[in-house]
Amino acid sequence: MKVVEVSIVTPNGPVYTSEAEMVSVKAKSGELGILPGHIAMVAPLAVGAVRIKKGSYTEYVAISGGFLEVRPDKVTILAQAAEVSANIDVPRAEEAKKRAEQRLQQRQDHVDFKRAELALKRAVNRIDVFKHTR
Ligand code: ATP
């Protein structure tokens, strides 16, 4: 069976490495599905889930934006933060979500608003991705 090597790397080091039959990511331009043999490309990623299909199982990894690099035999994701679903601390994400929602209600300056919006996206993404833990 054809496979592609997947690695997810953050400033704290590698978070995930495996072979997969398919990798799906949330690019800024929309969902992308990558199969082995895909042409080389680079794309910016949104806050979202990376889905890694291995046989009958799909592993979910939360990423907080970054870059995708595809070569025919390898998919590399560079992310500021990434967590495999089983490693997500849900109470922490719930707290982060609450804090971000409070900040958004206070309607401070534009910079704080943008920052709170992004924090909210990261927290909601983590909570969603955790739901896919085996
Ligand atoms: P928080 O306010 O809870 O720190 P955050 O979105 O600001 O959330 P990040 O700056 O994205 O956090 O991440 C900082 C580090 O903490 C990263 O290494 C990230 O993987 C980890 N991390 C953040 N939230 C969680 C979580 N809910 N579960 C597991 N790891 C997390």
From TrEMBL:
Family: Belongs to the ATPase epsilon chain family.
Record-annotated ATP synthase epsilon subunit C-terminal domain positions: 87-130
Entry keywords, A to Z: ATP synthesis, Cell membrane, CF(1), Coiled coil, Hydrogen ion transport, Ion transport, Membrane, Transport
Residue ranges that the Swiss-Prot or TrEMBL entry lists as coiled coil: 90-117
GO molecular function, one term: proton-transporting ATP synthase activity, rotational mechanism
Annotated function: Produces ATP from ADP in the presence of a proton gradient across the membrane.
Protein name: ATP synthase epsilon chain
Record has Ubl conjugation as a keyword: no
Compartments in which it is found: Cell membrane
Primary site of residence: membrane
Membrane topology: Peripheral membrane protein
Pfam families with a match to the protein in the record: ATP-synt_DE (PF00401), ATP-synt_DE_N (PF02823)
Chain ranges of the ATP synthase F1 complex delta/epsilon subunit N-terminal domain: 5-82
KW Transcription (keyword) present: no
InterPro entries: ATP_F1_dsu/esu_C_sf, ATP_synth_F1_dsu/esu, ATP_synth_F1_dsu/esu_N, ATP_synth_F1_esu_C, ATPsynth_dsu/esu_N
SUPFAM superfamilies linked to this entry: Epsilon subunit of F1F0-ATP synthase C-terminal domain, Epsilon subunit of F1F0-ATP synthase N-terminal domain
Domain of life: Bacteria
GO cellular component: plasma membrane; proton-transporting ATP synthase complex
Assembly behavior: F-type ATPases have 2 components, CF(1) - the catalytic core - and CF(0) - the membrane proton channel. CF(1) has five subunits: alpha(3), beta(3), gamma(1), delta(1), epsilon(1). CF(0) has three main subunits: a, b and c.
